[in-house]
Amino acid sequence: MTKYLSLFKIRFLTGLQYRAAALAGLATQFAWGGFYILFYKALNEANPAALPMEMGQLASYVWLNQAFIMMYATWFWDKEIADAISSGSVAYELTRPTDVYAMWFFKDMGNRTSRAMLRAWPILLFAVLLPAPYGFSAPDDWRIVPAFLISMLLAFVITVSFSMLMYVSTFYTVSPLGVRVFLTAASEFLAGQLIPLPFFPQAWQKAVALLPFASMNNAPFRIYSGHIAGRELWLTLALQCFWAVAMIALGRAMMGRATRKLIIQGG
């Protein structure tokens, strides 16, 4: 475990060096956060019954989504891992006395964590200073904070394990671009990154809630805002635990099958 934590630390420290990119990203997140909140505010004024969440809940959801976008973004792609598979240099990594799946998993976690840290605190600090109902507010019940943090961690594990599935799929394709574009578009929509899942039609919500995507950023952000509470909160955490285990098991199975049949040409 020590060597994998070292990989996490190396990637984390490397990611902290990209401060200019983080500053550019902050402007984008501020703009999109404001756009979404103004859109929901206009919708609320036109038809209050059209909003399945309160404006305060939506504002907190939006700012959390923007602050931690790099932690839960399925479009985030570690080009080094994908290129290693496409070029065949993954053969060198397979000869090392390490678990390649775990190595890539911790690398991806380190990359995401560092980029999220550079963006999260300025965005949330800015959002806290905004007046209601535009700003980020504290939860109504501070007792949900432990559940929120646990849900954040589980959602992070599920997101990284989903990214691992996209990396492993590169073993089976000539180019990973098609798989990446399709899965990224589907996951962003079904995880509530574009619009919160409560806005979906009632007939869709029950089915979508059971998918792994709903256990990503959707779950912790709605827990924080108070939209998921009581019995539903515990069911959500249990479902997140299930998907965290299931996605890692699926990724490992796909990795094992791919590497058993791997053929590297050239040299």
Concise description?
The chain is mostly helical. The protein contains twelve helices and no strands. The chain has one domain.
* Arithmetic mean pLDDT: 86
Shape: globular
**Unreliable residue stretches:** none
Q: What is the makeup of the main sheet?
A: none
Order of helices and strands: HHHHHHHHHHHH
- In whole angstroms, how far apart are the ends? 32 Å
The percent range for strand residues is under 5%
Radius of gyration: 19 Å
Protein described:
- The structure is a single chain.
- This protein has 267 residues and is mostly helical.
- The chain has one domain (2-260).
- The chain has twelve helices and no strands.
Jot down its keywords.
267 residues; mainly alpha; 70% helix; 0% strand
How would the blueprint of this fold be written?
Elements: H1 2-15, H2 19-46, H3 55-67, H4 69-72, H5 79-87, H6 90-94, H7 100-128, H8 145-169, H9 177-190, H10 202-209, H11 218-225, H12 231-260
Helix pairs in contact: 1-7, 2-3, 2-7, 3-7, 3-11, 7-8, 8-11, 8-12
